[in-house]
Structure prediction request, 797 residues.
Amino acid sequence: MTSISPAPDLSWTRKLSRPEDLAAYRNQLIAEQHPDATRILVCCGTGCKALGALDLLAAMKKAVTDANLDVKVAPLVKRTGCHSFCSRGPLLAIQPQDIFYQKLKPSDAAEIVQETIIGGKLIPRFLYKPPGAKHPIEKRSEIPFFAAQTRVVLERVGQIDPFDIRDAIAWGAYNGLVKVLTEMKPKEVIEEMKISKLRGRGGAGFPAGLKWESCARQPGRHYVICNGDEGDPGAFMDASLMEGDPHAVLEGMAIAAYAIGSDRGFIYVRMEYPLAVQTLSNAIRQAEDLGLLGQNILGTGFNFKVSVSTGAGAFVCGESSALMSSLEGKVGRPRPKYIRSTEKGFRDSPSNLNNVETYANVPKIILNGGAWYASMGTERSAGTKVFSLTGNVNNVGLIEVPMGTSLRHIVYDIGGGIPNRKELKAVQTGGPSGGCIPIPKKFLDINVGFGKLAEIGSIMGSGGMIVMDENTCMVEVSRYFIHFLVEESCGQCTPCREGLTQMERILTRITRGEGQEGDIELLEEIGTFTNSFSLCGLGTSAANPVLSTIRYFREEYEEHIRDKKCRAGVCKALYYLEIQPDACTGCGVCKKRCPAKAVTGEKKEPHLIRQDLCIKCMECYRNCKFDAIAIR
Amino acid sequence: MSESVMCCQQPEIDFVVLDRIIQEEYGGRREAMIMMMQAIQRQYRYLPEEALIYLSQSIGVPLTKIYEVATFYASFSLIPKGKHILHICTGTACHLMGSGGMVEHFAKKLGIEPGGTTPDMKVTLETVNCLGACAMAPVVVLDETYHPQSTVGLINELLDPILAE
Prediction:
């Protein structure tokens, strides 16, 4: 991958020494931008980066330079955070023309500059075409994936260069901080937060305003801590926020610090997110250079220093007390919660810990008012929520919708439905401690919110939303999550450590075709026990994947145990693959794809799978265009 | 053979480098111990015993506490890693797309368990819980290069030349 130094040198910039300097600086930045200039926004989020977006970025920059355009209207090629339509990467947006080009290669750059930027013509093959549609969509804002979202917290993500604070300031960053420093008392900030009804976006959903209030009341030095240890597999909302708009998170933390009376903050980021560490560290440096963080912020006498700390690969460190222990350089074991961390947390001092997305919402709430925020979403779950929509769905990516949006809207209108003509089976929310919501049986029209999800045996969690089609085995999914939790359980309390181990043993047996009568009941008993008596939030929700799949997919467990059959074609001991001769056209794709050389047959003749060689990797099944391969 | 013996020997510990990490980068603060250990691991690709003993003396944390931290967090390794590292993402999205089968396949092919290293110290097989690149599932990372929508066949093509080296 091409490496470029993304951060501009700002050391020449003078410090902003009064609150009103920010507005003046912002106006100056906006005036410097040519109003008609075309901007080419190349997505360099983790997903697109994995697909080679940095090479595309370099190629676009080169193509623009090579074209030798008039300097005044020369397009600006900008590196941005995640555009959120991850399954279409590498991708870019061209503004103000409202163009969205997807699935690009670096070699496409010259053509884009010549045809679209200079010639003003669209290149149809780069435009997005919805599955099954005849014509591509010409305008980015008309693509359902974008049009059906409400972007509040993600507003700047994908628009600004996360490595350049000037871009963030031009888009309004730190205006909320100026407002609290000049117009509001700490108590009023907390009051506004309470009015907003913002609940913690990390999973538990505790009202943020109440947490701030109880922390502010404590005596001693206060700490502001941001939980960026996004450990749920299949969730990357916080990563995209930290990578795409780090200043929103920092501003939110600074406002929290002002409200609770703190001068010191930490962001704990999981080590698997090196890009987030980079953007945040750079953002802190630039904000300090400008006098927006650090000592005597904007000359108001308010001090707030933030540092980035990285985790070392432990899921349990997403739990607040474990995180604080890890931040102290120790092992991350949760502790009982009879003393709240708002009283005694990090360094045994009052600590306010919120999730990345929670903090990123704060500046908007301060600027637009708590009532504005509370007007979105539902009565008990206010505001918007970012979800990472993944799994068996056409449009994989990040989405932001008001709380209370129906699963149908999310999966079909935004997500574009299920690929390959498959049936939707379940939606899993809340990470490993969440539950599987069966669809279409009952719940396609439930409104996603904290209360509603808990009612049906799942949780909101941090916002992972994994769509599962008919080829997902619910027993195996539950084994997968329990295995994950066995590995990640810190081991200090018995119900979680032993309960999970026993559940994994039973589930593994069932998926190998060695299930016994009574296994389901035993799983229910152990699961209920584990959830009731574990120490921390991780343990008390650990059995959710088992209990929710038994609740809604009991017949699948029974099939595995009694009939020794896995209808989804996942548990290898419980099915085999067979080519149906009448459907097979003999195209040879399966034969070519098979890594075990188990497929035999002549061209245009029905093929055969040799069961003794087949490793059941499903390559043939996934790639057959004629649905000729059957699970038996 | 001689090469593999070389690899398994304790590396030469450069105490100047350790001092730079411990004192200069992190000011000898005990709270920064996890990040110091990460920096040491970046240097040697694992945590050599001698380096940890030095760390213990430098910041005044008992070696048992350091051992506790080193064994608690998944990213730390007390044994040397191979020259190449094959990371298979086993996050939920990747799992649904068959990464579990890929782990099984490569564990069998390399003759090691996930987390293990081939006896010739060429390849370490690792699983990772989620890389946040779910749209590209299943994701395999070979020596820090991401391979989106990986298949057993594609990775074999990359791995076989390494094994034949």
